Amino acid sequence: MNRPFLLFALVALQGACAFFFVADITLTVVGARSSPISWQTRELLEIGAALGLLLGVVLGWLALRRTLAQKAQVEESLRGVQSAFREHLEATFQAWSLTPAERDVALFTIKGMSIQEIAALRNTSDGTVKAQSNAIYRKAGVSGRTQLLSLFLEDLLAEDVDG
Q1: Orientation angle between helical segments 39-95 and 100-110, nearest 10 degrees
Q2: Closest CA to 19 of 27, 30, 9, 31
Q3: Cα–Cα dist 20/37, whole Å
Q4: Of 20, 72, 99, 151, whose Cβ has the fewest other Cβ atoms within 10 Å?
Q5: Would you call 35 helix, strand, or coil by DSSP?
Q6: Cα separation values, 24 from 34, 50, 54, 59, Å
Q7: Overall pTM > 0.70
Q8: Residue 49, SS3 per DSSP
């Protein structure tokens, strides 16, 4: 059975059970029941509804555990990708022979910060950041911010040529 159908069926079952309890209480309180149902039938209906709700709790718990496990896997994978990308950045910066200041500016540039924002973060002038940016572009063999970003995007999106 496919999972969306199962979840839909579970929600429908829980809705029907909840509707039964609410309707039963409402009809009893307002005295709108035209003829009482036998206590055996009532007990069977309540047991069925309670089992449906209990099944919903159990399956909901299982779904929550599975979702949390998947979330943990995704977060671990993301940490691995972030670490690999950071290592790639550092190796590339080293290959370009960037100074520590240029590395900072390059990283902030890749993060999408403006020259003014970088200058404020680094406590320096816009002119200094522009000069460092130009040195980065020259060492990377690109003509500007967009091409610098595209170098790293190409690396991220490149298909594995080895296997």
Answers
A1: 140
A2: 27
A3: 14
A4: 72
A5: coil
A6: 12, 13, 19, 25
A7: no
A8: helix
As a whole number of angstroms, the distance between CA 129 and CA 120 comes to 10
What are the structure tokens assigned to 27, written together?
A: 């009809």
- Work out the mean pLDDT of the chain and round it to a whole number: 87
Tokens coding 60: 């909901």
Residues in contact with 59: Cβ distance below 8 Å, sequence separation at least 6, in sequence order: 10
**Which residue type, as a one-letter code, is found at position 46?**
E
- Give the C-alpha separation, 162 to 156, whole Å: 15
pLDDT per position as a tens digit, 68-89: 999 999 999 999 989 988 999 9
Rounded Cα gap, residues 37 and 24, in angstroms = 11
Give dist(CA 3, CA 80) in Å, integer: 29
CA pseudo-torsion sign 106, 111, 115, 118: negative
